[in-house]
């Protein structure tokens, strides 16, 4: 329920409904083709609430882009605080898992940064740019590589660029390329891709492949069985 000014009365999840409706519509149609009326209809609320929560259509678009990416940014900040390679790997794994649940959103985001994208550049506000590139800027690759020692003959800037490329490319790859390699962007594919890329990244800085942890109880049982 709303009052005359469009302000919601009582507890409401209207803001979240609008964000979800915006994500669905902006992922399907060009920005210019999505009206506030369509978004409100999709959300099942009054169009006046878009102005109340977000000021205008672009405010809603900006909030939708940023807030859907926030979980990845938080994971990157956690990795920065931990300061180890395994934490950086976890960012990539978490990112794939998160984006695999909404690949259309991921493609929408990264298409904003490509040329000839139907006006995407003017949709790139400073807040969106900061939010999307925050994980890459946050991770302390230099510290991780230095911790490995002289054996890691890797340029930190190039390592960061490679890491970001691994994050972005699957969602920007043309459909014809994916089909030619029989690739379907689903959770199973991204799980395999994460394992492969993490193994490759570890090798690139001279880290041995991770050995699965085996509990002492498991080892004891194995010894008993082989007596």
UniProtKB/TrEMBL annotation:
<dbReference type="InterPro" id="IPR001647">
    <property type="entry name" value="HTH_TetR"/>
</dbReference>
<dbReference type="GO" id="GO:0000976">
    <property type="term" value="F:transcription cis-regulatory region binding"/>
</dbReference>
<feature type="domain" description="HTH tetR-type">
    <location>
        <begin position="12"/>
        <end position="72"/>
    </location>
</feature>
<dbReference type="GO" id="GO:0003700">
    <property type="term" value="F:DNA-binding transcription factor activity"/>
</dbReference>
<dbReference type="Pfam" id="PF00440">
    <property type="entry name" value="TetR_N"/>
</dbReference>
<dbReference type="InterPro" id="IPR009057">
    <property type="entry name" value="Homeodomain-like_sf"/>
</dbReference>
<dbReference type="InterPro" id="IPR050109">
    <property type="entry name" value="HTH-type_TetR-like_transc_reg"/>
</dbReference>
<keyword id="KW-0238">DNA-binding</keyword>
<protein>
    <submittedName>
        <fullName>TetR/AcrR family transcriptional regulator</fullName>
    </submittedName>
</protein>
<feature type="DNA-binding region" description="H-T-H motif">
    <location>
        <begin position="35"/>
        <end position="54"/>
    </location>
</feature>
């Amino acid at each position: 329920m709303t009052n005359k000014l469009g302000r919601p009365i009582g507890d409401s999840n209207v803001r979240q409904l609008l964000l979800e409706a915006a994500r669905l519509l902006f992922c399907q149609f060009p920005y210019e083709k999505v009206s506030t009326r369509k978004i409100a209809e999709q959300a099942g609320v009054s169009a006046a609430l878009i102005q109340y929560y977000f000021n205008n259509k672009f405010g809603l678009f900006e909030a939708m882009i940023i807030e859907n990416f926030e979980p990845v940014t938080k994971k990157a900040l956690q990795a920065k605080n931990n300061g180890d390679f395994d934490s950086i790997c976890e960012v990539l794994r978490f990112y794939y898992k998160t984006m695999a649940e909404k690949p259309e959103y991921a493609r929408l985001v990264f298409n904003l940064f490509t040329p000839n994208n139907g006006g995407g550049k003017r949709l790139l506000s400073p807040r969106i740019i900061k939010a999307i590139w925050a994980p890459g800027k946050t991770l302390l690759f230099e510290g991780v590589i230095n911790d490995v020692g002289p054996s890691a003959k890797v340029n930190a800037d190039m390592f960061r660029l490679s890491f970001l490329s691994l994050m972005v490319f699957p969602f920007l790859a043309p459909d014809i390329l994916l089909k030619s390699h029989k690739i379907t962007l689903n959770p199973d594919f991204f799980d395999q891709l994460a394992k492969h890329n993490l193994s490759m990244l570890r090798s690139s800085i001279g880290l041995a492949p991770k050995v699965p942890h085996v509990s002492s109880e498991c080892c004891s049982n194995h010894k008993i069985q082989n007596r």
